[in-house]
Amino acid sequence: MALGKAFRERMKLMGIGNKELSELSGVPLRTVGNILNDVTDNPGIRTVQQMAHALGCTVDDIIEEAQDYYLNPDAAAYAQEIYENPELRILMDASRDVSKEDLELVTQMVIKLKNSNK
User: Which phi-psi region, left, alpha or beta, contains residue 61 (left: φ > 0; alpha: ψ -120 to 50)?
Assistant: First the structure.
């Protein structure tokens, strides 16, 4: 599921349209439409936060629902592993065009840092 579809599903559950989401979130209507239709494939995190908040959920909720958020399938699978590990969940703020190798490197660095502080 793409990011736009994840938002559309939430909107459907709440029974609101694009205009109402725009008003609730403070995100311009055109931007909301572009995200919902996946015209904007990499929206800013603040915009996503505003829209998620207006829908009564978190960015993590939206990302979890947008299972194909990462463009690289290997990175998507690895990101899911990271998401399921509470100590590494902060890495979910990574860019969606990141590679699996990049995620692995950052994960290894975080683990190494955590272990050196014990």
Answer: alpha
Nearest C-alpha neighbor of 51 from the set 79, 81, 84, 20: 20
Q: Residue 103: what residue type?
A: L
**Tens of pLDDT, residues 48-106:** 999 999 999 998 888 878 765 556 677 777 777 777 777 776 666 555 567 788 878 88
Q: Domains of the chain (ranges plus CATH)?
A: 3-65 (1.10.260.40), 73-116 (no CATH)
